[in-house]
């Protein structure tokens, strides 16, 4: 029985995978294997290694269904009371047979999905999906482990450059004595190390799934306030950090993985777009260390907003909508008949497939932006605002949740009013 579901005694586990276009799934030989481990994290007998040539454990507690040709899933049944006492952990591994020889990896997959259901009621107990890959040929999906007399599930999601034999070498030791033979060293398989930027992308994926947003749905741009009151945040590295967090979002939204960048004070500069390849030290290299870039004056929003519209809807037309993040630390001018202003640009651009996500940082005066929801005269509500007093200490998860809170609603309304086709 499990800790979370103490009445369940029999589980149905389904591992499924989805291969990306244009790859032919019939060319991939995907294997699901199960390692039933003792307290020393070893297979007590070879028969506790369950795979395509050995579909049952010796205690009959775990049974793997025969996989049909070209079927992109594998089912496993576990009868918890039958598991022998010396088994403390059950590990689920997915590998690609002959991956190196065929130049295949999980980077060519959309996802791997693992679901655990109550066998008798069909109720879903646990689910885990992995969608971000980095060239792995093997994946530890998850494990069931015993603690305090109950079985628990823990998603792992760890990728390796390895094959099935490396896992068997790691978890199984021959007990037959062969004194004259020199034992071969166990090959230690190292997980693929993810960079901090890779981890940011994983966090974005979690929020996208939660918000029911698919990837590749929008071009992404950011407008950065570089007025005098922002000087400390630029010089301390805070703006660079924020830019990297936004780039992670852009790589999931934009198929090209590009984040377009503008900076503005009383003038604006359309900066070089950035990608994963060249984001390091972007602020220092392109802005602070560039004497030709105007910075640290007063702020004036409408000109840069007009240039955003010029780029996306005159110079670079596309079927994709635009998700534009506008970062400001206060002082947005109120509407005026004599001068161009933020509300006027928003009203005029409401027919365009562009969503303006304003982010106020610090304790500045955001009266104009706080009243965006009350702005009348727009064909569609095309803007949102939220404030973060201390963006340096805002967690990645909270930032992404706030950034994507209103965008799904705009997408839905934009489609219904044919702003997006």
UniProtKB/TrEMBL annotation:
Residues 218-419 form the vWA found in TerF C terminus domain. Coiled coil: none annotated. Pfam families: TerD, vWA-TerF-like. Residues 2-171 form the TerD domain. InterPro entries: Stress/Tellurium_Resist (IPR051324), TerD (IPR003325), vWA_TerF_C (IPR019303), vWFA_dom_sf (IPR036465). This is Stress response protein SCP2. It comes from Peribacillus huizhouensis.
